[in-house]
C-alpha cells in the first residue's frame, strides 16, 4: 500500500469518528501544553532570578558567616537561622588592605515598622557603609546618599525607596522629615530611584538604607556583621579575589583546616551558577511530572485503537482478502495513532504558547516582577518528539493485533 493511500485511508477513518478522535487527542493536548508551560515558566523564572542577582552590581563577592563545606549547594549555618558572630570590624579592615579589593562593607539587615505621623509601614532595612550606594548601583532621585562621615559619626540619617516615600509621605517632600524605626528617629536625606525587585524577591523600592554603625548599636544591638559585601577591582578576576579573601579570613580567624572554615565566600558567578542549576533541576522535575499526563494520553490512544480494531474487524478481513499484507495493516493503524498524537501535539504547543503569553502579560501588569518571555525551542522539539513517539509506541501493539487477524475469521466476525 502506497504512503499516500495509507495516509488518505487513515485520515478518512479518523474523520468518520471526529468526536472520539478529539477526545482521544485531549490527553496528548493537555500533556504537551503542560510540558510547554512548565519549561517556558521555568526558563523565565531562571532568567528573572539570574537578572536580579546580576543587577545588584558588578564584580561582587559575598562573605556569609558559617561554613558550608565543599558543596556549592550546602547552605551556611547563618542562612538557616543560626546566629554566628564571626564576621567583625577587624575582618573588614584586613580584607580592605588587599590590593584587589575596591570597596567593602559589613551589612546588617532586619524587618521593622517605619512610622511617620499616622502612617506605619513594616518593611526591610539594610544597614551598611556609604560605599553600598556605588556597589549596589543605588542612585537617588531626591536628596543625597549618606556619607562615610555620617557612618563614623553615628548620624541618624536614612535613604528610603521611592515606594516607601510615597506610602509614608504621600505628596509631601520626604527630605528632612523624621521617621521612627524601633522608636529611634532618623532624618530622611535621600529617596532612591526605582530599582525593582532585588535578589530573592526583596522589594528594593520599599527598602530603607541606614548607616551600619547606628543599626548595629541601636536597632540590632550587635557588634558583628550578618555578612560582608565586597567589590573587586575590574583588573582582577573574581576567582582570584575570592581566594585572597578566603586566605585573609583564615589567617584572621586562626583556621588551618579548610574543612573548619567559619565563613562562606561566594562570587556572583557562583550564585548565578547555583541558582541556574537549581531552577533547571526543578524545571526538569516538574516537566517530568507533567509528562505523566502524556503517558495517560498514550494509554487512552491505545485503548481507542483497540476499540477501533474490534469495530473494523470485517474491514481488516476484507483488506487482507484483497491482498493487503500484515505490514499494510500495521502501517494503517500506526498512521492513525501517529496522526492523532501529532495533531494533538501541535494543538498542545499552540495552547501552551497562548497560556505562556497570558502568564507573561499577567505577571508584568499585575506585579512588579520584570518577567521575561521565554519560549525555548527545546520545548517545541521535546513536544513534537514525545507526541510522535507516543503515537508509535502506544499504537504499535493494537496495530500488530490487527495484522494478526485471519481474513476468514475476520470476515465472519459479527
Q: How would you characterize this protein structure?
A:
With 414 residues, this protein is α+β, with helices and mostly antiparallel strands. It folds into two domains: 191 residues, no CATH class; 177 residues, no CATH class. Helix content is 55%, strand content 16%. The protein contains 13 helices and ten strands. The protein has a six-stranded mixed beta barrel with strand order 2-3-8-5-7-6. Strand 2 and strand 3 form a beta hairpin.
- The overall pLDDT, averaged over residues, is 78
How does the overall form come out from the CA principal axes? Answer: elongated
Q: What string gives the helices and strands in order?
A: HHEHEEHEHEHEEEHEHEHHHHH
Secondary structure tally: strands: 10
Helix percentage: 40-55%
What is Rg? 32 Å
Describe the largest sheet: 6 strands, mixed, barrel
Cα(first) to Cα(last) distance is 27 Å
Helix-strand category: alpha+beta
Q: Please, how many domains?
A: 2
Instruction: Indicate the multimeric state.
Output: single chain
Low-confidence stretches at least 5 residues in length (pLDDT < 50)?
Answer: none
Spatial strand arrangement across the major sheet: 2-3-8-5-7-6
Strand content: 15-25%
User: Helix count, per DSSP?
Assistant: 13
Amino acid at each position: 500500500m502506497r504512503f499516500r493511500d495509507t495516509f488518505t485511508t487513515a485520515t478518512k477513518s479518523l474523520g468518520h469518528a471526529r468526536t472520539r478522535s478529539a477526545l482521544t487527542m485531549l490527553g496528548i493536548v493537555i500533556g504537551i501544553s503542560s510540558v510547554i508551560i512548565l519549561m517556558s515558566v521555568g526558563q523565565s523564572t531562571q532568567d528573572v532570578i539570574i537578572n536580579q542577582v546580576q543587577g545588584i552590581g558588578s564584580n561582587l563577592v559575598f562573605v556569609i558567616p558559617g561554613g558550608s563545606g565543599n558543596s556549592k549547594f550546602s547552605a551556611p549555618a547563618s542562612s538557616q537561622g543560626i546566629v554566628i558572630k564571626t564576621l567583625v570590624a577587624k575582618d573588614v579592615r584586613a580584607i580592605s588592605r588587599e590590593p584587589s579589593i575596591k570597596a567593602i562593607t559589613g551589612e546588617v539587615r532586619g524587618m521593622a515598622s517605619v512610622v511617620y505621623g499616622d502612617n506605619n509601614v513594616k518593611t526591610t532595612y539594610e544597614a551598611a557603609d556609604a560605599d553600598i550606594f556605588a556597589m549596589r548601583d543605588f542612585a537617588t532621585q531626591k536628596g543625597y546618599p549618606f556619607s562615610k562621615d555620617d557612618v563614623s559619626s553615628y548620624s541618624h540619617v536614612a535613604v528610603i525607596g521611592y515606594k516607601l516615600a510615597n506610602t509614608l509621605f504621600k505628596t509631601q517632600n520626604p527630605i528632612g522629615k523624621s521617621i521612627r524605626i524601633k522608636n529611634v528617629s532618623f532624618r530622611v536625606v535621600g529617596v532612591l530611584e526605582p530599582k525593582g525587585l532585588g535578589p530573592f524577591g526583596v522589594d528594593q523600592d520599599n527598602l530603607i538604607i541606614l548607616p551600619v554603625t547606628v543599626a548595629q548599636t541601636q536597632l540590632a544591638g550587635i557588634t558583628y556583621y550578618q555578612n560582608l559585601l565586597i567589590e573587586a577591582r575590574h583588573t582582577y578576576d573574581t576567582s582570584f579575589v575570592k581566594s585572597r579573601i578566603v586566605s585573609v579570613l583564615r589567617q584572621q580567624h586562626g583556621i588551618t583546616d579548610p574543612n573548619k572554615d567559619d565563613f562562606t565566600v561566594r562570587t556572583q558567578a557562583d550564585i548565578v551558577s547555583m541558582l541556574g542549576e537549581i531552577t533547571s533541576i526543578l524545571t526538569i522535575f516538574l516537566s517530568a511530572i507533567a509528562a505523566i499526563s502524556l503517558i495517560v494520553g498514550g494509554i487512552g490512544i491505545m485503548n481507542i485503537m483497540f476499540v477501533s480494531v474490534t469495530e473494523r474487524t470485517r474491514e481488516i478481513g476484507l483488506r487482507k482478502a484483497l491482498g493487503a499484507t500484515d505490514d499494510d495493516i500495521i502501517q494503517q493503524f500506526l498512521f492513525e495513532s501517529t496522526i492523532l498524537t501529532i495533531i494533538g501535539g501541535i494543538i498542545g504547543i499552540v495552547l501552551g504558547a497562548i497560556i505562556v503569553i497570558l502568564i507573561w502579560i499577567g505577571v508584568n501588569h499585575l506585579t512588579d516582577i520584570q518577567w521575561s518571555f521565554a519560549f525555548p525551542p527545546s520545548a517545541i522539539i521535546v513536544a513534537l518528539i514525545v507526541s510522535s513517539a507516543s503515537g508509535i509506541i502506544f499504537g504499535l501493539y493494537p496495530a500488530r493485533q490487527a495484522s494478526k487477524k485471519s481474513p476468514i475469521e475476520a470476515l465472519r466476525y459479527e
